[in-house]
Amino acid sequence: MTIPAESLRTLHRIHKQLEDLRDRMARGPKQTKALESNVTRFEEEFNTAKQTVMKIRATADDRQLQLKTAEDRIMDLKRKRNTCNSNKEYQALIEQIAADEMATSVLSDEVLEYLEKADEQQVVVNEIEGKTKKSHDELEKLKIRIDEERKRLEVDIARLTEELNQAESSLPKDFRRDYDRIVNARRDDALACVDDEICGGCFQTITPQMLNDLFLDRPVFCKSCGRLLYLPEDRSVGS
């Protein structure tokens, strides 16, 4: 049983090309998944930041309501002050009004503080919203590009698969079981070129008998790594 080195070289070339195409095909979904995770992260940050703004504004609204209630109370006290019947009552109202006005001053400062915080947080929300939109756009563009590349790769894979089937059809039938076994296990790493009597897969030196068998186009498997060996194109008997 003989197998020309040229046939093995062709088989190895096709297997390597197919593996490269499959790797490129697999990278697409991985890139998409990574960008989808990025989009999800921005969306979560956006929702969290937006909720923070809403809480701050709700607190500001609550303080404003308290402020309005306090101001109405002061106005009511001032009206009572103008109609009181005794100096003692008048003085008590004066003191109450002063205390309430001090409290409203604190509330007014708090309202302004919360409104400023809300405006600052809204800037953060707008920034994250912009990043979220940008990541969405990038994801859609990536999906389109990957889909177009996938279609091209499928055509190339189909063409090479047909080429591989034709190349494998020339192998001796009694050798196909061993060939299929090693290819199924190692794929493109199933074959190795011999250079200077060294296996190109595991870099172990082959025996003189193995080298002689290679020159005679007999199938040879590396005793160290099990790869199917072949001679390079520039090697011939006696070289």
Folded structure, characterized:
The mean pLDDT is 93. The chain has 239 residues and is mainly alpha-helical. Helix 1 packs antiparallel against helix 2. It has 4 helices and 4 strands. The two termini are 23 Å apart. The radius of gyration is 41 Å and the shape is rod-shaped. The longest helix has 83 residues.
Secondary-structure topology with pairs:
Elements: H1 5-81, H2 87-169, H3 176-186, E1 191-195, E2 198-199, H4 208-215, E3 220-221, E4 228-230
Parallel strand pairs: 1-4
Antiparallel strand pairs: 1-2, 3-4
Helix pairs in contact: 1-2
Short description:
The protein has 239 residues and is mainly α. It has helices spanning 5-81, 87-169, 176-186, 208-215, and strands at residues 191-195, 198-199, 220-221, 228-230. The longest helix has 83 residues, at 87-169.
Summarize the biggest pleated sheet.
Answer: 4 strands, mixed
DSSP helix count?
A: 4
- Cα-to-Cα separation, first versus last residue: 23 Å
User: How many extended strands?
Assistant: 4
Q: Over the alpha carbons, how many angstroms does the gyration radius reach?
A: 41 Å
Helical residues, percent? over 70%
What string gives the helices and strands in order?
HHHEEHEE
Strand content: 5-15%
Low-pLDDT residue spans: none
